[in-house]
Amino acid sequence: LPLALSATDATPLPEAVRATGRALFAAEEHSGVDLDALVAAVHPDPGNPRPLVTVSVDLDRAALAGIDLPGLRAEGVAAGTESAPLELALMATHAPDGSLRLRLRYDADLFDAATADGYLAELEERLAGVTAAPGEEAAPSEEPEPGEEAVPREEPVPREDAAPGEQAAAPDTATLLREIWESLLGVRGFPDDSNFFDL
């Protein structure tokens, strides 16, 4: 669905999340509208009938290739979630080891490779910022200049474990995500088995 949402770099994250939620619910109420008719009504330019870019983001889980069944052998293949061809589509596959495999499909008539790579670089930087440890800033992604060879990134040196009692045990991922969403949405004590969209 096309969403009407206005936000700037100065918009606080909680307000951006709430505004996105309001925009999603408002769009859902008008989901039966004919998009082509709507675009033609607001932008009646015969030379540019579809000024909007259709974008999709899909999240899927990797197949359980390692499942052990009698007389059956399974092997993972390099394939992610698929969707109908759109102008721009990002497919993220959640691997069993917890990592994400990203795949970007785009219309080469609308986007060039440099633009698509720029989108992925910005996404990587934002994901690094979201997953950075408290008090640490994610290192900005450094893209090589055109014509320069990319320099392999150095692997981070693992930190030594803190002595017992120096720091409290870190919460598991599910608990941490729950705390973040509760803080952003201003909702506490929501039952674990309730519908997320009821928030």
From TrEMBL:
This is Peptide synthetase. Residues 150-162 have a biased composition (Basic and acidic residues). Residues 139-148 have a biased composition (Acidic residues). Residues 133-174 are annotated as: Disordered. It comes from Streptomyces parvus.
